[in-house]
């Protein structure tokens, strides 16, 4: 028998520690008991931890998640400095923060959908639930200007499955508008969001949104120096076992068949027709990297060693895509025949 089994004081302590804060308690505490940015962030961290929310849509820890909520409400850009942490929040600001936190906890809505902002390549983008939340590790390649995989500034780049347009816009900004970027998506709603961001950065003459089911609506003979593709790549198992937050995102932007590679197969077959003779394809397949390697064991995919984390980003040259075209086409036809 435990020595503390009948200790009522200890039992009460355990009960208080394990008791989850209610919506009403969260609102009451934030609005009436707290004062500074640091006070509120610390409290939100405790609430998020108690309720075991999932973070992964722009942050990877509870502190950064809480801090982003507060910064969004007070219209500050990260990073937050010491003076900001010690700043007092108004009652109205604390009330709004409490409302956002409750939605974040109860309905598991990702923070960027609640604040309408996300960050990619150090730039802010408007987002809502018409698009997937920016978080691609391809950002690291954009910030390096695709070095060492291209040896000159690209003239034309295609951003396939553009979503919010963050990749296309980040490319245009990195090359200071001296590149033409076509931003392709099958979703009208996604392109509406992309247009908001394109106009927000004044890139209407640089980044061109195009509605197309992959390459179907692109003119034959169009050629690009770089094709960047961040297609849906979640396999059926991962799709069924994802944290609740992911179900807020568009289904179209996530699932891609049993192995997560339905869209990737099409891209591998069709991409070389739209690349210049020294062109490259950069594609993200995330957790489906292992499935890709198993499916194409003879293909020399170059998976990028990403210094800031992330997996499943590979590069193939147009020569490699052409050399293995029959292998890719066979895999695509086999899936089509099964259906």
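^ Assign residues to that structure.
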């Amino acid at each position: 028998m435990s020595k503390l089994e009948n200790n009522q004081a200890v039992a009460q302590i355990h009960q208080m520690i394990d008791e989850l804060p209610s919506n009403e308690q969260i609102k009451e505490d934030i609005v009436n008991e707290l004062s500074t940015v640091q006070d509120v962030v610390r409290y939100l961290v405790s609430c998020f931890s108690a309720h075991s929310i999932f973070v992964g849509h722009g942050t990877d820890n509870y502190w950064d998640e809480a801090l982003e909520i507060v910064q969004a409400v007070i219209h500050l850009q990260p990073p937050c400095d010491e003076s900001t942490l010690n700043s007092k929040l108004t009652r109205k600001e604390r009330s709004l923060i409490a409302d956002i936190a409750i939605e974040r906890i109860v309905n598991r809505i990702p923070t960027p959908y609640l604040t309408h902002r996300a960050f990619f390549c150090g730039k802010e983008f408007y987002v809502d639930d018409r698009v997937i939340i920016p978080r691609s590790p391809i950002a690291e390649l954009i910030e390096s200007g695709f070095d060492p995989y291209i040896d000159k500034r690209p003239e034309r780049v295609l951003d396939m499955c553009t979503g919010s347009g963050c990749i296309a816009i980040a490319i245009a900004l990195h090359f200071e508008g001296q590149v033409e970027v076509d931003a392709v998506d099958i979703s009208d709603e996604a392109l509406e969001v992309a247009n908001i961001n394109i106009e927000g950065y004044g890139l209407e003459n640089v980044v061109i949104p195009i509605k197309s089911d992959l390459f179907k609506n692109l003119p034959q003979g169009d050629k690009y120096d770089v094709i960047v593709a961040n297609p849906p790549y979640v396999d059926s198992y991962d799709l069924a076992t994802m944290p609740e937050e992911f179900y807020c995102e568009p289904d179209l932007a996530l699932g891609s068949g049993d192995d997560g590679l339905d869209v990737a197969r099409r891209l591998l077959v069709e991409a070389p027709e739209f690349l210049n003779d020294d062109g490259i394809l950069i594609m993200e397949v995330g957790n489906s990297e292992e499935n890709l390697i198993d499916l194409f064991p003879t293909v020399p995919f170059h998976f990028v060693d990403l210094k800031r984390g992330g997996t499943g980003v590979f590069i193939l040259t147009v020569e490699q895509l052409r050399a293995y075209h029959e292998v890719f086409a066979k895999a695509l036809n086999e899936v089509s025949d099964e259906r």
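The longest helix spans residues 91-106.
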